[in-house]
Amino acid sequence: MDKKFIELTKFWKNKKVFLTGHTGFKGSWFAIFLNLLGAKVTGYSLQPTEKINFFKLANLNKIFEKSFFGDIRDYKKLKESILNSSPDMIVHMAAQPLVRLSYKLPKYTFEVNTLGTINILNIINEINTVKTGLIITTDKVYANNNKKIFFNENHELGGLDPYSNSKSLAELTIDSYNNSFFNKKNIFVGSARAGNVIGGGDFSDDRIIPDYFKSFKKKRLYVRQPNSIRPWQHVIEPLYGYLLLLKNLHQKRKFKKYSWNFGPKISNNKSVIEVVVKLNTYFGNLIKIVKKPVLMKNYYESKMLMLNSKKANSELKWLPKYNLEYSLKLVADWYKIFFLNGDLFNISQNQILEYLKKKNDRSIAIRH
Q1: Most buried among 14, 148, 253, 312, by the most CB within 10 A?
Q2: Taking a C-beta distance cutoff of 8 angstroms, is the pair 133, 88 a contact?
């Protein structure tokens, strides 16, 4: 048995985790990770709405102690669900995660992303029994002027579009609750900001990886900003960082600031078109990118976004392990199993175990 896996299971075995957004792409992967380490996970989320959904395809309901289906805005049900499960820690992933949809549904986006976070924070403050929490936000919380800046945790928060702005407000709220309440009660709540995560099981609309696989028949992929640069990383990378951070928070380790970047290797900052070209090599497809006109008025989306993860490197000993080529290979391997109607739970577990076995490459330590 791998040494790192044994070390992780010593801490996580029988830990009770309350996970919001457990039916989503990232939540599903995190639940598999926690279950693999022996944690007891309770989920709270909306019922999955996509016709094709990772949670259902991999029969993930079987790995949860309990699954509560409800809206993150429903304070009473959310609080009752948390009290009912008596968790050791809360991980909040539930969100409206799409920039484009945030323009169509701005009020809903702010209610889910900002008010939903406030609900979690206020429940932690009210019940006073959960001492550890982690709120997942996004790399888009920074005031971005599209210059070649690697944003660190001290850069100004901002966001012009409703999605980015709603997550920035969530970050400010976390900071307020920490300073106003949690620091005095010995409650440790952090926030995590990750890049453009990719991986098997993402079937969302308006995201490049699922859009790529949906374009197989037409051989055309319509993209708004094909030259936009994003910090691509496999979903397992930041999830491992979350585990390390949660462990430190639960062991009451104090930090000057409780926000954290988990970004990829510098070489993973690539354009959308480069990602599609690399995927084409794995599938032998000649899917052509077609620039899609932006029909919405006043639509804005940043063209460049890069993260500095020095803090996670120095404080948590977390380093990204995978380059973009290998991350995309893992994505391709997963979807090949999907197309063959294979065991998606098994390949997901195996990719996590493979990740844990791979040693950190200290030569790629982040030097921004």
Answers
A1: 312
A2: no
